[in-house]
Each structure stands twice: as structure tokens, then as C-alpha cells.
Write a structure and sequence with these properties.
Structural class: mainly alpha
Low-confidence stretches: 1-13, 26-30, 285-292
InterPro entries: DUF641_pln, GIL1-like, GIL1_IRKI_C
Strand content: 5-15%
Strand order of the largest sheet: 1-4-5
Protein name: DUF641 domain-containing protein
Shape: elongated
Distance between the termini: 205 Å
Helix content: 55-70%
Number of strands: 6
Mean pLDDT: 80
Largest sheet: 3 strands, antiparallel
Number of helices: 13
Pfam families: DUF641, GIL1_IRKI_C
Organism: Brassica carinata (Ethiopian mustard)
Amino acid sequence: METVKPLDVASRKGKLRRAFVKVISIKKLTGVLSKGEEVERVEKSQEKVKLDDKDLVKHAANLSESFDKLEEEYEKTLSMEALLAKLFATVSSIKASYAQLQYAQSPYDPAGIQNADSLVVSELKTLSKLKQSFLNNQFDPNPDRTLVLAEVQELRSLLKTYEIMGKKMECQLKVKDSEMMFLKEKFQESKNHNNVMEKRLNRINPLDHNHFVTYLHHTVKSIRGFVKMMVEQMKVSGWDVHVAAETIQPRVFYYKQDHACFAFEHFVCKIMFEGFHLPCFTSESSSSSRTQSKETFLERFTELRSLKARECLASRPESRFSRFCRGKYLQLVHPKMERSFSGHLHVRNQVSVGEEFPETSFCATFLEMAKRIWLLHCLAFSLDVKASIFQVSKGCRFSEVYMKSVAEEMFVSPPGSLSESEPRVAFTVVPGFRVGNALVQCEVYLSR
């Protein structure tokens, strides 16, 4: 028999240990333990489950309490929203009822007023109940339904308000239509009345002596404005004003040097009023008599008075007034005078061929004067009484009945003169007029 070597015994012991450790590890992995170990593990697991159950119950109780609080707050918020919605719906109902109350007042409807008043009172009571519910914390048990009903009520109230406003606007439209028809009728009545009055004016001329005198005053004022401009142009052009006045009215003693302008005023009036006694203001023959053309003269006066002279000339270049202006300008403004004023004869050439007057201050002043004189002529021939023109001769004694002096200094006797030396008429400055039995004095310049 062979003997056992120590090395072999040690190697067998190592193998046995490794096998035991391997078995222990396999039991741990597979859960296969010994009976005592298994009991100990189960007891520990039961104790752990008991502890987990206690925590879970406690946590569930806390969650339940939180859910209750959230639900309570949600219900309270929803109830408050329902209360506000009902409040706004009630206010809209009050507005609709008040609009209905206003509508029933015009036109007056007693039944409608009573009905609207009852609705207003009812809605106010509802507001009072809502107030008490809020103060007592009495919220609606069914807020969802209340929200829907409040929205429906508010929409109905708005619709009712719009319907009432529409009816009111329809009534106002009818009233405006009635007013418009009434105004149309009044306008037609006024128009018919004006036509009747116009016919009466054509039959009965309301113009009298006072109207003629007033317009003559404006005409003389425009003549003197033109004369003043003409004298200024003469001075600027280097004319000797006194020599020019001497050629118009020779051997006249002027009390003042400035009185020489009255000679130019005499010259302008003589040219401009020439032919005033004729219906056409010219030597042209007229087919209509004075009686038949009286209404025509009044129409001309009314039409031209509101227009500017240049507008009338531009719109009617071949009218009698246009021919009157051109003819009087060519007579009044001598070619030498125009050449000295402007250095050429362009204005004269334009006027002589029938073109428009240039837009100068001199021409504008002349046209204004010509328009005034033409209108005075139309006014004279539109009167029921006869109007005629007159002037006095040189050397006549002064008469306050027929004359008016343009220079009152003539009535003051100069120092050293004889008392019996009285002023005499040197020339007529502005002619006089006879209007029926009335007399308009002529203006004269007196000289001793």
C-alpha cells in the first residue's frame, strides 16, 4: 500500500473549501436558505410591511384632507362667480326695463309705463336678495346652472334694450321725416310768397328820392377817388397841375392851390354824365320807350349791383355796360395822358379793340367809378317819376336852392374886399338832378 503524501492532503482540503463557498453562494442567489434563516427573514419583512402600512395610512389621510379643502375652495369660487353673473344679469335687466320705461313716456303709454315700472321694482328686489345672500354667506347650491341662466338672462336683456333703441330711433326718424316735410312745405310757401312779392315789386317800384340821393352820394365819392388818383399820376409824371387846370377852366381864381383839383372833377363829371338823360346812356336809338323798359332798368340795377365791374365785362364783353366803359375811357383818358402815365398806349389799344382792361389800380378805380355811374343811371330810369340832370352856367349868382358850394371859404370875404362883392359860379363841379318834384343840388365852385 502506498503512503499518502502531505501535498495531496493539502490540495484536497483546498478543493473542499472552494466547493463549500460555491454552494453557499448558490443558495444566496437562488433564495434557498436554511430553515432558521428563512424564518428570520420573513419576520423582518413583516415588521417592515407593518411600518410601511402605518406611513401609507397617515399620508392618505393628509391627501384626503387637502382634497376636501381644494374642493371647498373651488365650490366657493364657483358660487361667487355665479353670484356675480346673476348680479350683472340683474343690472342688465334693470337697464332694459328703464329703457322700456323711457320709451313708454314718449309717446305717452300708461300701461307700458306701469309694466316697465313693475319690472324695475322686481329687479331691484332681486338685487336686494343677492346682497343679503352675500352678507349671510348663502351661496347657490347649483352654481353651474345659475351661470348658464344668468348668461341667458343678460343676453335677453341686451336684446330687449337694442330692440327698444331700434324702436326709439324709428320714432325719431319718423319725427325727422315729418319735420322735413313741414320745412319743405314752408320753403315752398316762402318761395311762392317771394314770387308774389317780386311781381309786386315789378309793378310797383319801391325806390324813391331818398334812395337816389343816397346812391348819388356813393357815386360822387367814387368819382373823387378816381380824380385824386389821376392828379397824383399827373404829379408823378411831371405835369403842371395848375396849367392843366387852366386848360380845362381858364381864368378861374382858386382860393387855395389844392382847389385846382375841382377843375379835373368837373372834366370827369362832364365826360361821364354825358348822355345821362338818354335811356341807353348814349346817342344810340332805343326801340323800347321809357315806360316799357322801367322794369328792365330795375333788373339791371339789381343784377349788376352784386357783381364786380371786371366780372361783368369778362362775362358780357358786348353788353351795353361794357361798351359804356370802353367808350368813356377812350373819351376821358387822352392818348398824351396815357403815354405820360405808363410810357405806352397798350391800355388804349386793348380797350379800343374790345379786349379786357388791364389789372392796374388806375383801371380798377376807373371801372368802379363807371359802374357807380351806370347803376345811378339805371336807378334814375327805374323810378316812377322822371329824373333829369342839370348844371348852371358860369357867372350865375349863387342860390342855395339849386346849388351847393364845394369850397365854403368863398363865403368869407378876403381882407380889403368890398362887401358888395359876392362870389359867382366859376363852373359846375358835380351836376344836379331833378327827381319828380324833388331837387338834388348841384355842386359848384365859386370865385370872386
